[in-house]
## 1
Amino acid sequence: MKSMDRLEFLKGTGWMGLAAFAAGCQMDRIGFGAGGTMAGFVAPKLKRFRIGMVGMGSRGTYALHRLSAIPGVEIAAICDVREEALKDNRDFLAKKKLPPAREYLGSEAYKDLCQWDGVDVVYACTPWMLHAPVALEAMRCNKHAFVEVPATMDIDNCWELVETSEATRRHCMMLENCCYGEHELLALNMCRLGVLGETVYGEAGYLHSGPTRGYELSRFRAEWKWEHRGNYYPTHGLGPIAQYMNINRGDRFDYLNSMESTSVADLIRAGDIRWNGNNLESYKKHVVGGYNSSLIRTVNGKIILLNLSCQVPHPYSRMNTIQGTHGIMMDYPLRIDIEDTPGSGPHDGFDAKRTQAWREKYRHPLWKDVGKIAAKVGGHGGMDFIMDLRWIYCLQNGLPLDMDVYDLASWSCLCEVTEQSQARRGAPVEIPDFTRGAWKTMKPLGIETIDLAKINLTGVGGAGPQQSIGVSKE
Ligand SMILES: NC(=O)c1ccc[n+]([C@@H]2O[C@H](COP(=O)([O-])OP(=O)(O)OC[C@H]3O[C@@H](n4cnc5c(N)ncnc54)[C@H](O)[C@@H]3O)[C@@H](O)[C@H]2O)c1
């Protein structure tokens, strides 16, 4: 890991990155922070733009279905190492009578895609380890880079993405769809309106059952867990909490402690726990690592519990709890309580009717405006489509994105930071300040929506292809 404070390095080195960039897109490492901060960065409007997609597996294919339905967006190129993945998406575009996408086949073919001047934006839906190489290549070729979650598992990569985005003046955004869930945006709205008061504590997680209920880690996830400990999937739960708490916009993550229980698979192998007989071989193969639990402290003194577990029985949950000085929202299931409610005593529990009333009252404008269409289009209950509409709207209208490269880095770096801490018996490990001080002056995210008059969604949803996208819980 590199130095936390790079301000000294920044002085006088900005020209290096820009010169390297001017020399062509195949340059090597860019100088530190060249070009200045990307906080609040606005790119020239891209009214119509062309996307090159890399990794046409499960996530990439669903994304192509959604994105190809949005006006002003063309799927110009697709890339994979598997011909059948290209074929499925080729057939889909043909069926929808959309222009064919240029195809790139092979493990290094994403480089050619990035270099092609027929794309403005590159979106990586590959296994984790490839997100950063694709995004770096895209930015060096003057394309905006969008990546799936987590952006990278590695702190050095986080720095390189930050520095490259700064030097090339290209967006680098991690598409954390869970920031756009109905309940997440409800909580964000309540925080923005001050309903919960000052936030003090949050709970974020990625919890669901494992092979006993039919879930098996995909190959790249399992391979990662065979080699590593720590929280390998922190961003689904943490991204929204970071937004409620204005992380990188008035506060930042300071340090964390992380611990991991004994691996369940190890217990099974050692014969230490009873097994009910189902899926034992699958369990042995796919269940790795234990229950990981981390506690993050922010510079302003807030704390966040961050959990990960996909091997022991647990109904799906991202935890999504935010405690403020005036109230609390807990999720899974949704419960809200706000101070000063007439008739509430100190030992009373949550009230379902009041929760529902507050849910209606504080529904986020994005869900009010496009919630029905998004639910029809699908993609995790609609949140994926709301996210797509929002980042596309921002690009088309020259607005800053809701999540920037500093969010990408400070959320994704926790894969390595949690691993470092748990390897040291839960000792505190510092979390880098990727903004290098810009968090102190960066304004909090507002209550953002889209102007529907500027995006013609007539005909989207309904009987369209998007209905085939299930409402899975990822
Ligand atoms: N945001 C969400 O809700 C969500 C949900 C699922 C997955 N994801 C993320 O999406 C990403 C992909 O997950 P998935 O479930 O679709 O995996 P997947 O295995 O189904 O798809 C990955 C695809 O990448 C292709 N690929 C591998 N190497 C490549 C290379 N060098 N060049 C081009 N293509 C290559 C594979 O052939 C495959 O088609 C992961 O980062 C995952 O964490 C996010």
## 2
Amino acid sequence: MTNRKKLKPTEGVFTANWIPYGYMYSPTAPNGIVIDPETKEYVQYIFEAYITGKPRAQICAELTKMGAPSPSKRKEQLGYEFRNGHANDYWPMTTLNFFLINPMYIGDYVDGDVTIASYQYINHAIPEDAKLPNIIHGHHEAIISKDLYIQAATLYHAQKDFRTSSQKKSNSLPPTPFFNLFHCGICGRQMYRAQNVTKKLGCYSAYICSSYRLRLPDACQKKLYPLNDLIPQVHKAILQEFKLSQKLASQVGEEKSTSYKKTEAYFQSQIDIAVDAVRQNSAAYNQLENRMEKGKITPEEYNTEKAALDKEAVEFSALVVTALENIRTFRKVCSYKNKWLQLFSDFDEDFVITRKTSRKYLKHINLYPDKPMEITFQESEERDKLQEYLSLQKGKGSGRLKRHYTRPTIEKTEE
Ligand SMILES: [Zn+2]
């Protein structure tokens, strides 16, 4: 009975989006996976070329030259989902890492950390705190032999261990906690991160407009933004955003009371005004028909007035739709359902900027040579709307309430 668990789709049965390169999804296959005849040989080529000592960059260049579809390209061809917005027409070097240690290619299924699994195959030392993955042997058809896999994985780890240990010895550069967030405030282009080690500054990392770096004809002026200057500014801004969210959350809580209801009533009144306008328009139309039937107006007068009423009918219907949308947005934004409030609710005094957190909270940062950076936070539209609604509730002039729209004027049609 214990083996039943392995039959669960998450543990060993593939779905289309999780199929590794070289295989295809097949709902009729026992575990959902069959060999992809179009790409199988490229997988074999990768392993065979790698164990001859060919550099990975060269293997990638040759795969591209051979016309081998890149992993993302193949996913696109097969109609599977893939992470990046567009498929690569070339083989990025990092993709090879996924192949060289993956026991998938010898027909085994790994539920857990593939790197740890590969250590097990080659008798590499396993870190003490590592969680051993669950491996299902003979899970599906193999593309390469176990011998070839062991050779490749051994070589890969040997090179990797060497790379990390030699990096530690040298002056390693600080990793950036930001990923593609910085843009040039002047031209809008992506900022390029330049790295250098100097005697005076030590490890030195700074952003510079990519137009300068690429020597474009309309390049921005040379201006370096050191990474170490940017981090505290961004950190401070995120902390402020956390604090603001706490403040606004408390107001949302208390504003469920009278002033929330007052504002809600205001939005309701806007619906009533719009609905009333539609009604009056219909009534005016009936009266017009009446007058026409009784011969009180000429066909020309009738046509002119009818055209005006038709135009109004369109406008007033749109008002009803807008008013309904407004009250729905108000209720959603001015509550704990507000996406921005939810995002920034996990306030943490010890907040640290990492690649993960910077992506989570930040959307875009513009850098300027002569003024402070401009930060766009995730879900900031919801924050702006919330602030607007809260200031409406604070009654910062009833004039602001009227800003949405006022009662439409309707030409009175006297009987
Ligand atoms: Zn620029």
